[in-house]
Structures are given as structure tokens and as C-alpha cells.
Design brief:
Low-confidence stretches of chain A: none
Largest interface: A-B, 19 and 20 residues
Oligomer: heterodimer
CATH superfamily of the largest domain in chain B: Nucleotide-binding domain of ferredoxin-NADP reductase (FNR) module
Helix content of chain B: 10-25%
Distance between the termini of chain B: 48 Å
Number of strands of chain B: 15
Structural class of chain B: alpha/beta
Number of helices of chain A: 3
Helix content of chain A: 40-55%
Largest sheet of chain B: 7 strands, mixed
Strand content of chain A: under 5%
CATH architecture of the largest domain in chain B: 3-Layer(aba) Sandwich
Largest sheet of chain A: none
Number of helices of chain B: 6
Strand order of the largest sheet of chain B: 10-9-8-7-11-12-15
Structural class of chain A: mainly alpha
Mean pLDDT of chain A: 86
Radius of gyration of chain B: 19 Å
Radius of gyration of chain A: 16 Å
Chain lengths: 87, 279
Amino acid sequence: MKSGSRERAWDGCLLDGFAKVAGGHDFRKNRADRFRHRLYRKGKYVPAKIGGEIACVGCGRCIDACLPDIANPVNVYNRLVDDLGLE
Amino acid sequence: MSKPSTIEKDIYLPQLAAIEKRRLMNATEMYLRLKMDEGPLDYVPGQFVEVSVPGVGESPITVSSSPTQKEYFELVVRRIGNVTIAIHRLRIGDKVGIRGPYGNGAYPVEEAKGRNLVFICGGIGLVPQRSFVNYVLDNRDDYGEITVLLGTKCMAQRFFQSELDGWSHREDIHFMETVDEADDCWQGNVGVVTTLIPKIERELTSALVFICGPPVMYKFVLLALNEAKVPRENIFLNLERKMKCGVGKCGHCQINNLYVCIDGPVFRYSDLAVAPEAI
């Protein structure tokens, strides 16, 4: 091989088909499931695995990009604590 | 130019393996026998490898042969996407990249010693289970009775036919098979695999049960096992997902907090009680 190129493709756990398998079954078909998974992953799964309080670097890009204004993880986690009394 | 990483072995770097044998077993399933260029693959039944075709991509495939067979390992690949189509086009002597084996939660080979084992397979779910079944047959004295139930969609989709015929003629393994849709040439059981479960009630008591099949199968098999009063601790589910990276980075195979590629692919049912995405 004399040359090559580096290819990159978008991927993200909120995108449709992220958990789709070859047989066609999609394990997180609903948007709500994927949204839930994203917040659980940042707020619970990853910290439980490797420590730390939250697995979010706080760049704020999701807040800027979100038109219905639901993505702000600060708001979500605060509401979970204030309204539902979750830790 | 950047210096090559000296910290650890690159986790994404595949090793080469050559195709020694290939055979199309039915319309979509390809049997491949591979040999690693550098030493044998060291794996436990249930573990999977990432098979890569240069320029196309990578797919997670569970090893189908028993590790008692050291010279080579076997895969069964269903033609379903870009990578698997490319794998089907490969010829004998061609090289593929292999990463792995991956999966810390493979079949509980040690725990199962001395126990009776029941394998419930649906279609291509036979492929991962076959690794453990053959492992048990190769170490026959270490294990109790073995029962294998297999459900296939139709006669034309059956594969490993001569091996399955061998199982059905052996005295030390109880093999039962059914097809969903019967035709004139089929004289065996008809119906989905759950219809066989009431027939093995005696074998199910105190046995470890291993399930692998299409996603829809698990729910119904678990209902039938619940009816047969099999405790959840004795049920093991082989939950294959899209294990894209294989090393717990990408999150494609995540079931809530569990990574199929690291924690699985075989899970004890009682450990999954709080994981709603699993079944």
C-alpha cells in the first residue's frame, strides 16, 4: 500500500440506530430511551465504573445546539434532585 | 511524524489470520476455518473476535469451535451487511484481521463442572453454543447430562447438519430439534423452540440453562423456564449486541450500565434483574 486516507464518521448514542444489531433489532429504538441512556451514562454508569461525580466535561455544545432546550444536563440533574429527591 | 505509542500494545491493532477452509452452509451462513499467523488463539467458549477486512470494516463474530481444538478456530458468518458480504467474498488463503478474543463473561466453564447442562438455541444462536457443547463433549467426564434444543425457521436454514446428526446419534448427549415451518421433507418436531421445553422437564431440574438466539426468543424462553420453575441463578443468557470496539469504549453494546463486550457476552439472568434493556 502506497497511500491511504483517514476516514471519520459521525456516531453518537442519541442517533437513530446506535444500538441496532445486524439482525435488524434496535435495542434503543425510541428517542426517550436514547435520551435516558445518555443522561444515565453521563450521570451514573461511567462515574460508578471509573469514579468521579459526573462524566461530562461541561463544554456546553449540547445546550447551544438543542432547539427544544431539553439537553442541558445541569437542568436535568438539578430537576432530578429537586423534584424527585434522587441522589 | 509522530512517534509510535510505547505505552501499551495498541488495542485496535489486529493480528492476521489466514482462511484455511470456507463453505457456504445454507443461503446466508458461511463456515470459515481460520489459523492465526502467530500462535493459536487463546479463548474460552463464548468469547468473540473482531474480524476485519481491509478497506471495508470490522465485525464482532463469536468463535464457534471449542478451544480444545488448538490448531485452528472456526467462525460462522451470516451475510447481512458490508463487512459480512466482504467476508463471504474471501477465498482460501486470504488474510483477515483478528482482534480479541474479547468478553470476560464467557461461558462459566468451571462452575458448570459436574452439573447437568441444557442449551436452548434459536437459529444462528447455535453457533456460539456449539463452542461450549463441543468443549463439554471433549471433556465429557467433567460434566453431567447435556441436552441441546434447537429451533430453526425452516428446513433450508439448517446448518452443521452432519454434526447435528452426529449429536442425535450419540448416547451421551440428548439432542432435540424443531423447525417453525414444516415442509414435506421434514419429519421431526414442528413449532418454535419453546414447544420443546415442556418435554425436558426432568432434565431442567437442577440444570444450568444456556440460551442464545434472536432477540425475540429470549422473552418466550424465559417465560417457559419460569413456568418450569428454573431458578434465575441457573439461567445464562448469551446477549450478543453490536460490539463495535470490543473493549468498552464506544458504548454500542451497552445494556444500561453493562458492556456486553467486557462484562458479557454471557450473563446470569439473576444479575440482569435491574437491566430493563437486556431482554
